[in-house]
Structure formats: structure tokens, C-alpha cells
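stage 2 :: seqdesign
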């Protein structure tokens, strides 16, 4: 089924190279496969900022290896991985993602997991790495549809960052957010469209979304505590995907 706003057709830009903001979560893993279908070379970047769900960083190499094992052309195109230490971001963020405090809705209607400006910092460092590596395209999993209203996940924010990076580094950057207008159910469907059942199984089994870093409980939708906002989004999305 074609869904509005998703281009599932294969459009390979063989001469262009991309950098994927790859956290090891469900969304960025789908974005990585999306990029591997399109670009001649795809590198990945991850950030260590003191997140409580640091287990994300542990699952990244295994996901990269398994993705490379799914298709020969994906293996050929998958390039270097870059880990950027950003402890300063955790140090200035009094949030539930970086402190041992409750994950809940705060008075400003944002969850206490909100790290102010996190994605602005991520894009800036990604742009610097992309500049140095000659990568024109930045691919990231931001989503306006069901992402708790984080302002730095909005389409206008991403468009502003594309302009800021292009002007500020005097180099043409193109920022892609293939999940911007789709919900979690459609993200599972997109995973299956891109890489079939084997890739969908990989997304469920290997990617990590739980804010608490819990991988002790296996649900139909993957591992997690089952209670935090990230687990709820993922489980609700998977239920709607399998019911469709
Ligand atoms: Zn959880």
C-alpha cells in the first residue's frame, strides 16, 4: 500500500554520499536502510551524551553488521561509523534522559525526557563530520507525527538547520527526514517495504527504543520496559501495524 508522504520507490543516487544520524533505535535503523537503498556510500554517526539508555550505543555495531549481511549492495555501500562524545550536552541537561528522575509530562506539555536543542547540536556535529568526509546528504529519523511534540524534531526546525549548515559551512547540504510525516505503525510498514520480513525482524529484535535501557523483557514489538513513553509509542505502533 502506498502511503501519502512516503517515497518507497527505489531512487539510487549512485554518485552521492550520505551520513545517517544512527542511534540504534527503531527510527534511525529504518533511516539507515532507506539511505542504503539510495546512496552510493552511507556512513553513520552516533552521539554519547550521557543518556540513560546508553544501551543504544551498544546495539549499534550489531545492527550495522546485521544490516550489511542482508544485501550485498548494502554491505558494499555501508561505510565508516563515527561516535562523537558529547558529555557537555548531558551536563547542561536536567532531564529524565540524562538524570535518574521520573519520565513524565512536565508543566510545559513536553515530557521530562526533553533535552533542549539536542537535535540542533547533533545536526551541527553531523554537518562538521559530513563536511570533512565529503558527504552531502544528512539522513535523520525526526518525526512530527507522534514524537511528543519535541520542537527540534519539527520539519521547520530541520529545514532551518539545512539552511544554517549550508550557509555556515559554505557547502551544499541536503537534510532528509523520511519519517517526518509517518507514525510508528507506518514506520514498521516502511521497514518491511524497504527490506522485507528479514529487515522488519531485525528492526524488532535488535533496535532499542526504551528510555530506561531495559532489554530484559521481550515483547512482540521488541525489548523494553513496556511502560516508558518510547516503549508505549513502539508497542502501540506495532499493534496498529500488525492489525492493518
Ligand atoms: Zn521503556
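stage 2 :: out
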Amino acid at each position: 500500500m502506498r502511503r501519502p508522504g512516503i517515497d518507497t520507490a527505489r531512487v539510487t543516487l549512485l554518485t552521492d554520499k550520505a551520513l545517517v544520524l544512527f542511534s540504534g533505535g527503531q527510527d534511525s535503523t529504518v533511516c539507515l536502510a532507506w539511505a542504503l537503498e539510495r546512496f552510493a556510500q552511507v556512513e553513520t554517526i552516533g552521539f554519547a551524551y550521557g543518556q540513560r539508555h546508553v544501551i543504544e550505543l551498544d546495539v549499534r555495531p550489531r545492527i550495522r553488521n546485521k544490516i550489511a549481511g542482508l544485501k550485498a549492495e548494502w554491505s558494499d555501500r555501508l561505510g565508516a561509523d563515527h561516535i562523537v562524545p558529547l558529555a557537555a550536552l548531558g551536563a547542561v541537561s536536567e532531564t529524565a534522559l540524562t538524570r535518574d528522575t521520573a519520565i513524565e509530562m512536565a508543566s510545559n506539555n513536553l515530557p521530562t525526557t526533553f533535552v533542549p536543542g539536542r537535535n540542533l547540536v547533533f545536526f551541527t556535529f553531523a554537518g562538521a563530520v559530513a563536511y570533512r568526509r565529503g558527504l552531502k546528504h544528512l539522513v535523520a529519523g525526526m518525526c512530527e507525527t507522534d514524537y511528543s511534540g519535541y520542537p527540534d524534531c519539527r520539519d521547520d526546525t530541520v529545514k532551518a538547520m539545512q539552511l544554517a549548515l549550508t550557509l555556515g559551512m559554505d557547502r551544499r547540504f541536503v537534510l532528509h527526514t523520511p519519517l517526518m510525516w509517518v507514525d510508528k505503525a507506518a514506520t514498521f510498514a516502511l521497514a518491511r517495504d524497504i527490506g522485507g520480513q528479514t529487515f522488519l525482524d531485525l528492526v524488532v529484535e535488535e533496535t532499542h527504543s526504551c528510555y530506561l535501557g531495559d532489554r530484559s523483557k521481550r515483547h512482540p514489538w521488541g525489548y523494553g520496559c513496556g511502560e516508558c513513553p518510547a516503549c508505549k509509542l513502539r508497542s502501540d505502533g506495532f499493534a496498529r501495524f500488525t492489525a492493518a
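stage 3 :: structure notes
- Residues 1-5 have pLDDT under 50 and may be disordered.
- The domain at 8-197 is CATH 3.40.50.620 (Rossmann fold).
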